[in-house]
Structures are given as C-alpha cells and as structure tokens.
TrEMBL record:
HTH tetR-type domain residues: 8-68
Organism per entry: Nocardiopsis endophytica
Pfam family, one: TetR_N
Parts forming coiled coils: none
Keyword Transcription regulation: yes
Protein name: TetR/AcrR family transcriptional regulator C-terminal domain-containing protein
Entry keyword annotation includes Oxidoreductase: no
InterPro entries per UniProt: Homeodomain-like_sf, HTH-type_TetR-like_transc_reg, HTH_TetR, Repressor_TetR_C, Tet_transcr_reg_TetR, Tet_transcr_reg_TetR-rel_C_sf
Protein keywords: DNA-binding, Repressor, Transcription, Transcription regulation
SUPFAM superfamilies: Homeodomain-like, Tetracyclin repressor-like, C-terminal domain
Cited PROSITE patterns: HTH_TETR_2
Segments of the chain annotated as binding DNA: 31-50
Length: 225
C-alpha cells in the first residue's frame, strides 16, 4: 500500500492547530468542526485522539503549564521560589490570554498543574510556612498573576487627549498610556509582586515567632492549591 501523501494526524499537531485557533479567534472560535477544517481532515479523525473539546483544551493547558518554572523552591528560599513561579506563570498566561479562563480555573486533574501545585505547596511548607498559610499564599499569588495576565490597565485608556483634558484634569496624560502599555503593565506587575513579597516577609516573622519555627503548629493542614 502506498504511503499517504500528507502526514498522519498527531496529538501534537492537533494541539498546535487548536492553540492557533484560540489565539486568533478566542475560545468561542474553537470547535472540532472548525479545527478539522483547519487541518484539512474529517472531524471524526480528531475524536480518535481526543474524546471531547474539553479534553483537548485540558491537554493544551497542560502543555502551557509545563513552561511554568517552580524550580526556584528547590533552593529552600520561598521568596525566590515565588518570584520565579509568578513571573513565568504570568508570562505563560500573557502569551495566550484567550486561554486564561481555561488555565486559571484550577489544576483539576491536569498532571502538569498538579505537579507544580505540589512543588509550590511543599516548597513553602519546607521553608517554614504552616500548611494553611502555604495554601493561601498559593491562592494569593494566583490572584495576582491571573489579574496581571487577563487584562491590561494601560490599554484601557483612549489615545485621544480630548477625552480627558477638559473633564478629567488629573488624567491629562492618560492618552499616552496605551502607547507604553507593555512597559507599564510589566512594571506594575513587578511593583505588585514586590509589595506582595514584602508583606509576606512581615507575616512570616510573626508566624515563625508564634509557632516557634514549627510549621505544623500553624493551624491545620490546609488545602493544596
């Protein structure tokens, strides 16, 4: 039998094409029918690799989460671990903003997300945080990152100076924000992260004093994020 002239359909190829569709058209622009058209195959061919669109999206989310770095916790320095995790997490989300609603919903059963959640929780506890605090820190970091990735503060302003000059005197330069959106959004995230870590420093000292350096005395096992 002659070899097919076109490459066989693979899960990787399906994922890449689906991610391209979502990046271009948003989540609502992805359907198995449209994806099949994009790949020039029959929709039935896709279902032999993925049972549902949700299964496909979960696999794509798994791949994106694989680029999030939690190795900073290996050093035992929770500040370094959180910094590396938060920056790479935001970068991964910002690269595919249309997928944020899928990724941000939580790890569920996604292997890569669960592996990272386990590393983060374990790293925080090993560094001296009680389990309950470790859970809350993981959640708080996620809120910070997702908020920074899902929306742009600077791009929310019009570039027409007339909009602000007469009625909003304190916003007389707001029309320039969109032009510098990338820089403003990056620097604003770094400021928020710095303030967050500084606040945690004070809490950490209080927790260590109260528990005598024993994280198990910190109030329960917590829930892994």
């Amino acid at each position: 039998m002659a070899r097919p002239k076109t490459p066989l359909l693979t899960r990787e190829g399906i994922r890449d094409a689906a991610l391209g569709l979502v990046d271009r058209d948003g989540l609502e622009g992805l359907s198995m029918r449209k994806l099949a058209q994009e790949l020039d195959v029959q929709a039935a061919s896709l279902y032999s690799h993925y049972r549902t669109k949700d299964d496909l999206l979960a696999d794509i989310a798994n791949g994106i989460m694989a680029g999030v770095d939690v190795s900073g916790f290996d050093s035992g320095d929770w500040r370094h671990g959180l910094t590396v995790w938060a920056r790479t997490y935001r970068r991964a989300l910002a690269a595919h903003p249309n997928l944020v609603p899928v990724i941000a919903v939580g790890p569920g059963r996604r292997e890569e997300a669960l592996r990272r959640a386990d590393a983060i929780h374990g790293g925080l506890v090993a560094a001296g945080w009680p389990p309950r605090h470790a859970t809350m820190i993981g959640a708080s970091t996620k809120y910070l990152v997702v908020g920074g990735a899902i929306n742009s503060f600077a791009r929310g302003f019009d570039d027409d100076v007339q909009v602000y000059r007469d009625r909003y005197p304190n916003l007389f330069q707001a029309h320039k924000l969109a032009e510098h959106a990338v820089e403003i959004d990056e620097d604003s995230f770094e400021l928020a992260l710095e303030a967050f870590l500084a606040g945690l420093e004070g809490i950490f000292e209080k927790v260590r004093t109260r528990t005598g350096g024993n994280p198990d005395e910190g109030g329960g096992e917590g829930v892994r994020h």
